[in-house]
Amino acid sequence: MYNAEIAAGSLMLPESRRIAALLLSKPSSTDWNQAIRIDNILQKKTPSTAIRLARLIRNRLEPMPQDALEMISQGESEVATQMLLLAAVKHSRLVGDFMRDVVAQHIRSFQDSLSRKDWDDFFAECLHRDANVSTWSETTRAKLYQVILRILKEARYVDGTRNPRLCRVMLNPAVKAYMDRHHETYATECMELYA
């Protein structure tokens, strides 16, 4: 149910826009290799970093339909970022469940910030839902919390990562319309927290 793949990176808007555009071109494996390793479209210092990030972003974006990829690659920043959050929620139940179970609960109970204890309590719940989570190291768990906070910051659900205070986020109408059109019920529960 849960995977730790998101530990590799947050939403990464500029890089994700490039990968979305590349996926829209329906690249062959040769084209993909050329773009990531040779042309270095992600502009990373080492090929191994580029390959690792490209794999994460591809796994996140590849299941998304063409109209979503177009919104990510060509949409205004808010639209692209919220669509990337949608892709992250669909790709990682850990992100979605944290938003739905922790962030939404804080909003309902008028708590204005998140803490490491919130993550620890949530993670204890995850252990009951998925036994595989118990195999993750403490380092991985800490990294996952950092990445989820960065995702929430990039999507403007929190104002920072050190003392994350919750921010009021409304879905962009184009993103909301996309989610309604594609019946994204779970993602709506996770992302539309001020409806």
Overview of the molecule:
It is built from ten helices and no strands. By secondary structure, it is mainly α.
Short précis:
With 195 residues, this protein is an all-alpha fold. The protein is 64% helix and 0% strand. The longest helix is centred in the last third of the chain and has 17 residues, at 138-154.
Strand content: under 5%
CATH architecture of the largest domain: Orthogonal Bundle
What share of residues is helical?
55-70%
CATH topology of the largest domain: fold of a uncharacterized protein from magnetospirillum magneticum
Record field, number of beta strands:
0
Mean pLDDT: 95
Can you lay out the helices and strands and say which pair or pack?
Layout: H1 13-24, H2 29-38, H3 47-61, H4 66-74, H5 77-91, H6 93-108, H7 116-129, H8 138-154, H9 173-181, H10 185-191
Helix pairs in contact: 1-3, 1-4, 4-5, 5-6, 5-10, 6-7, 6-10
Search tags:
fold of a uncharacterized protein from magnetospirillum magneticum; 0% strand; mainly alpha; 10 helices; 195 residues
